[in-house]
Design brief:
The longest helix has 13 residues. The model has no long low-confidence stretch (mean pLDDT 87). It contains 4 helices and no strands. With 80 residues, it is mainly alpha-helical. The chain is 48% helix and 0% strand.
Length: 80
Amino acid sequence: MASMTIRNLDEDVKERLRVLAAEHQRSMEEEVRRILRAAVEPRESRRNLADIVRSHFGRRNGVDMVLPPRGPGREPPSFD
């Protein structure tokens, strides 16, 4: 296994990593290993349907859809 030293890490980042690791009941080292693994895994395996839709539509692609206001629902059908 390789080792890595990270210098000049902001105290705020270190504290957030510590809290995140505690939330997941892991050491800070294990939390950082998992974050790094997730960051370098192939993109295709991380995409879900919502990501694909956002890549085609959305504000960044010039599509800004406004949802119409919702009104009361219609009366249910009668089966008498």
